[in-house]
Amino acid sequence: MKRKMLTTLAGSAALALAFAFGASVQAAGAPGVAFVYIGNPGDAGWTYAHDQGSKEVEAKEGSKIKVTRVENVPESADSERVFRDLASKGNKVIIGTSFGYQDFELKVAKDFPDTVFLHATGFKKAPNFGTYDVRMYQGAYLAGVIAGYVTKTNTLGFVASVPIPEVVRNINAYTLGARSVNPKVHTKVIWINSWFDPGKEKQAAETLIGQGADVLLQNTDSSATLATAEAKKVHAFGWDSDMKKFGPSAHLGSVVGHWGVYYTAVLQQVLDGKWKNDPVWWGIPQKAVNLEDLNAAAIAPEGQKAVEAKRAQIASGQWDVFTGPIKDQTGAVKVAAGKALTDAELQRLNWYVEGVDGTLPK
Fold first, then answer.
1. Rounded to the nearest 5 degrees, what angle is found at the Cα of 82, between the Cα atoms of 6 and 260?
2. Which residue numbers in the chain have pLDDT < 70?
3. DSSP E strand stretches across the chain
4. Are 289 and 136 in contact, with CB atoms under 8 Å apart?
5. Residue 168, SS3?
6. Would you state the pLDDT for residue 362?
7. Rounded Cα gap, residues 25 and 92, in angstroms
C-alpha cells in the first residue's frame, strides 16, 4: 500500500561543500542531506533506527547541514522518482536506507555526478554512489548465546522477512551463537516475505511458539514478535532498536543498530572534502551494533558472563562469528577450522548452518 510521504526540513546556514571526487560546490545555504525511508519512524524498528541516526548527525552538525526526510517510499520505480526529485532540488548527499532502492538510486546517481548517493546494505558501486551496512549478525550471534542458556525446549524461533543474504546471515549467526553453548539447540524459521507486516509477524511468531519455540528473534521491522512472546509467556529479543517496552517480561535484550556512528563519520568526511567511495561495513568493534538492555532476571549469571566474553572477543576484531569450523545442514564443513568467511562470501551467503530446520526459499 502506498502511503503519503512526509517531508521534514530542519536548519539552514551558509557553508561550502567539497567532494572527494573532485567537485567543489559553494552552497547558497547549508548543503542538503536527504534520507529516504521505506517506512516511518513509528515502526520502532529499521526506519526508527535510521531516523535516530539521522537525528544524531543533525544534532552534531547543527546549522552546517539541512536535513530532509522522506518516509514510506516503496522499493519500486516510485523510489526513483523520489531520488530524482531530491537531487533536482539540490541536495548534495542523498541516502537510501533500504536494500531494494539500489538499482533505482544508482540510476539517478549516474545522472547527478556532483551529488553523493549513499545506499544501505547494497553492493553496487559508482564514482558518486557508495554503500554501507552494519554487522547485525554479530548482535544476532550474541542473542543466540543468551537463547542457548535460556531455552527450555532447545527450540528457537526466527521470524524472517525476505530471503536475501543479509537475513540468512542473521538466522545462521543466531543459531551458531546458541549452539556454541548448547549443541542441542535447533532453529525453526518462518518467512513472511515482507519487511514490515505486523499481522504476518504476529502470526509467524504464534506458529513458531506452537511448534515449541520458546525464544524468538526476528529480522523484521515491527515489535510484533516481542509483543506476541509477551502474550504467550515465552522469551524474545528486540531488533534494530531497544524494544523492551513492547514486552518487558519476554524481553531478553535488543540487537541495536547505531547508524548514527556511520552517518556522523561519513557526512563529516563529505563536509571536509575527504569522502572516499569505499564500502563501509561496521559492527561491534566500531560501536555500530550491540546487544543491549539484557534482562538479568531472566538470564542465568553464567549466560551473562558467556555473552560478555563473546562480546569482548568480537569487539577485539580478532575473531568474528563466521569463523570455522562451521558445517551446513548436511554436516558438510563449509568453513574450516581457523578460517573465516570473507565479506564477499558473507554477502552471497545462501545456505543454512547445521541446526537450522527446513530449507531456504529459492
1. 65
2. 1-28
3. 7-10, 16-18, 24-26, 32-36, 66-70, 93-96, 116-120, 129-134, 155-160, 186-191, 215-218, 235-240, 251-257, 280-282, 289-292, 326-327, 333-335
4. yes
5. helix
6. 83
7. 9
Cα distance between residue 161 and residue 153, in whole Å: 24
Cell of 47: 526506519
Helix, strand, coil percent content, the chain, rounded in steps of 5: 40, 25, 40
Q: How far apart are CA 261 and CA 284, in angstroms?
A: 11
Rounded to an integer, what distance in angstroms lies between the CA atom of residue 339 and that of residue 320?
10
Residue 297: strand, helix, or coil: coil
Could you give the CA distance from residue 286 to residue 265 in angstroms, rounded to a whole number? 11
* Residue from 255, 293, 275 nearest 135 by CA: 255
User: CA 17, CA 150: separation in Å to the nearest integer?
Assistant: 52
Instruction: Write the CA distances from 19 to 7, 26, 93, 117, 339, integer angstroms.
Output: 26, 11, 10, 12, 39
Residue 219 has a pLDDT of 97
**Residue 280 forms beta bridges with which residues?**
132
* DSSP string for residues in 299-323: S-HHHHHHHHHHHHHHHTTS--TTB
